[in-house]
Amino acid sequence: MEFTKEYWVNCFSRCVRYATTFFKWIVFSLIMGTICGLVGTAFHICVEYATGFRENNHMIIYFLPLAGIVIVFIYRICGIRHSKGTNLVIGSIRSVEDEIPSRMAPLIFISTVITHLFGGSSGREGAALQIGGSIGVSIGKLFKLDDSDKHILTLCGMSAVFSALFGTPITAALFSMEVISIGILYYCAFVPCLFSSVIAYAITKKLHVVHDHYNIAGMPTSVDVPLVIKVIGLAILCAVLSSLFCIFMNVVHKLFRKYFKNQYVRVFAGGVMLVLLNIILNTTDYNGTGMNIIAQALNGEAKPTAFLLKALFTAITIGCGFRGGEIVPSFFVGATFGCAMGGLMGLDPGFAAALGMVCFFCGVVNCPLTSLFLSIELFGAHGILLFTIGCAVSYMLSGYYSLYNEQKIIYSKLRPHYVNLYTNQEIKTKEPGFLEGLIRIREDDSDDIEE
């Protein structure tokens, strides 16, 4: 290598390019983190207020069918007839054709609060991804950034609002990078996503937002072979359950679309079903996020059928057209299932609930690194080895299913082979690497509304 003048000029140019890019993303991280932190705080406060009001006024649940009609009407008057929700955000990262409308942020904000106020079973973090993604696209348009930079800002927004709502900045940053294309991490977005996430989290702490973190009393202090076998066993069960949950969510959604062509009728029918379930079961445990039930499970208490009922409530809520997310309901299902099964397997119920929650989440979103850091930020690093084993097993055995139809599996889970297929597909060949044998069973998940 000759240290010529041209060599030094190239080195200087490279240093300037790196420094400029770094400074650019620091500035945009500050902008995104601040805006998303404030919006996320407002969203958190509104959802918490809606939840508290519903818990003190149980009769409001009977108005859930009418609330669904209001949500559909709001989307229609804003000109959105086909709402793909979080799937649109995920798809927009890989394609310039699927652009997130700026009005998605206020729409999903308002409609999610309405859903929680009247007792729909949904989460907040799915809405956070849509709010953050919409803000990111809007900021990108404002500063006239190119498509690649707008995609990174979309990831920043997803990370920042997720962090503001859940109080897990590292998990939030990794999730937005990992969830888009399984097998590929968008490392170019690591700095802006992490900084946006941390800034948003810092703002929520400054505004005295309280996030849920847990101390698991029954966390194992030592690791032995019988314990590892039990952890693997529970992770296998969570992987199977996560696949069934994703299939069930898709089936319920398709059944609603098949038998209720008009979305006003569809969402009203779903609301009536949820009200009837509340009357029959005589409980409100499965309305809203159910964070109190998750906390009980992590303390070692859960009804054996809680995970099944929460899956049913969530599938009806999301399937018929109410808004929100599926992530917190997946925490509920995983935690209550782990608590119930852990006791039967000889594990501490509280620890089993935490393990079940993380492994089930890993199975439904196919994000093992995100799930691992989630366990650390929520429960501490004492059980990192056991959670790592659980996440690895759950990821491998959960198959090609996901909460998000637009999520892609880039590399096979079984061998180092490029597959590049969408989740929730039926595989007709023995080897998932052969694309010729794939038959798509998922439909366009837009909500068709009759005139």
Automatic annotation (TrEMBL):
Example GO molecular function: chloride transmembrane transporter activity
Main localization (coarse): membrane
Xref: SUPFAM superfamilies: Clc chloride channel (SSF81340)
Membrane topology: Multi-pass membrane protein
Superkingdom classification of source: Bacteria
Protein name, as recorded: Voltage-gated chloride channel protein
Gene Ontology CC, one term: membrane
Keyword Phosphoprotein: no
Listed Pfam families: Voltage_CLC (PF00654)
Residue ranges of coiled coil: none
Subcellular locations according to the entry: Membrane
Alphabetized UniProt keyword annotations: Membrane, Transmembrane, Transmembrane helix
Keyword Membrane in record: yes
Transmembrane segments: 22-47, 59-77, 152-177, 184-203, 227-252, 264-281, 327-347, 354-376, 382-403
